[in-house]
Amino acid sequence: MPHHCRAAGVLVAEPDETPLRGFDRSLPMALLRAREAVMKKFIPALREHSLSPQQWRVIRALNEEDGLDISELAERCYLLMPSLSRIVPNLEKRKLLKKSQSSSDNRRSVIYLTRQGRALYAKIAPKSADRYAYITERFGYGKLELLYDLLDELVEKLDDPADGVPGELEKKP
Q1: What is the pLDDT of residues 112-158, one digit of tens each?
Q2: pLDDT value at position 23?
Q3: What order of strands is seen across the sheet that includes strand 109-113?
């Protein structure tokens, strides 16, 4: 039976078991804590304009590359289609974006920012830039750039389709 070693933040396993990190030191929890700390700095500016972080991601993505189809937008924003299918009509109703049929495929919808959507982006972007400057000042430019690089590398290593999950390959008959 495993027992907890608080100093190391891991559960110490018996010789034939794989040790499990303590809950507070698990990678998903560390990433969630970091996300929450960062988002606390951005959410007040979004709330001033009745936007959720997910809605802001859609507006930012379309500001950088307007005219994305719904599946490209979902992928770019890391949103599931059911979430995006609620966000798009909401932002359309607010006249921040518009949806039209693709000229190359009538079955596909293409999403565009409206003039009002661009104006809202122009209002919020400077506040976001200020928040990034604050985070950079507090954490340090070099450390922040290193963090971006390390997170990119982590995603690259874990998204490699040639890799399986350790232990799963041996368990299959």
Answers
A1: 999 999 999 999 999 999 999 999 999 999 999 999 999 999 999 99
A2: 86
A3: 68-69, 109-113, 97-101
* Helix, strand, or coil (residue 22): coil
The model's pTM: 0.78
Domain boundaries, the chain: 22-158
- Phi, psi dihedral angles at 163 (to 5 degrees): -85, 140
Q: Are 117 and 97 in contact (CB under 8 A)?
A: yes
Map residue 32 onto helix, strand or coil. Answer: helix
The CATH code that applies to domain 22-158 is: 1.10.10.10
5, β-bridge pairs = 10
pLDDT of residue 171: 46
Separation of alpha carbons 142 and 140, rounded Å: 6
For residue 23, CA distances in Å to 4, 6, 8 come to 11, 11, 12
